[in-house]
Fold:
Amino acid sequence: MKCLSFFRCLLFTFFLFFLLPGYARQVDTLKVYSPSMEKELKNIVILPEGYASRPQDTYPVVYLLHGHGNNYTSWLTRIKPDLPRIATGYGMIFVCPEGEKSWYWDSPVSPKSRFETYICYELTGEVEKHYRTRNNRNSRAISGYSMGGHGALWLAFRHPDIFGACGSMSGGVDIRPFPDNWNMKDQLGTYSDNPRRWDEHTVINQLPYKTDSGTLAIIIDCGTEDFFFQVNNQLHEKMLKLKIPHDYITRPGGHNHTYWNNAVDYQLLFFRKFFQR
Structure:
């Protein structure tokens, strides 16, 4: 496992300095120790060009969560290599955290898998300590694809005091139709033995979310050929019934990197408008 981790790190370094040489100064690897999980995790931080030369400027932050089987480098190396250009054009900081195969829950089964705590408190605190961010909910957004789409809505719906905007691309917004997939039972136990726990840990059942801190700006996107298309439609219908404002986009496409490369453009534009309100 150590050899594999070293090889991945070497590949990322090669990608950054040889394939994206113009962006190397904009990309940091932030190592964050998680007290709740008692281990160090790596995260990519993408800064606008000229960040170092404008010490008076502060920036909103978008957290981008990866999917199952990917890692903290995947947004930059697989999905959207030009994120540094977008960070510059929009005046944002992007943070791409490590989420392992956690589904971004605090697992009730595995006490060392506490990625809800990590993202919402430990990571955000370290990002705001090390970078010139605007430290309020109206300057934080979170999105992701697949498992990360589930994670972004899960975290934002449960912590609207931390995030003011959220998005999902091809998100697994109802996990219950997929009880044997993507290591979810490692985090929750089996569905057959723990149906209530699965009910409690699915995004669609987090609605309506608490609005004491304000409403969320929400954007959801899923392709018509995606195996998550039906559950995204069901989430959309429930939000309409509850009169929860949101943007819902669907277009031809499946569950793949090509779809997310396009979809994230709409999400980041949505967040830019939110930050400019």
Observations:
- The mean pLDDT is 93.
